Amino acid sequence: MSWFFIILTGFYVEASDRQLVTLPSSVVSQGQCKQVSKYNHYPYEEVSTSFLKPVGNGQMLHQDAAKAFLDMRQAAQIDGINLTPLSGFRSRNQQKYLFYEVAKQRGQTLEQRAKVSAPPGYSQHHTGLAIDVNSLDPSFASTKAFTWLQNNAKNFNFSLSFKENNSQDVSFEPWHWAWHGSEDARLALHDDGCI
Ligand SMILES: [Zn+2]
Question: Where does 40-188 sit in CATH, by number?
Answer without folding.
Answer: 3.30.1380.10
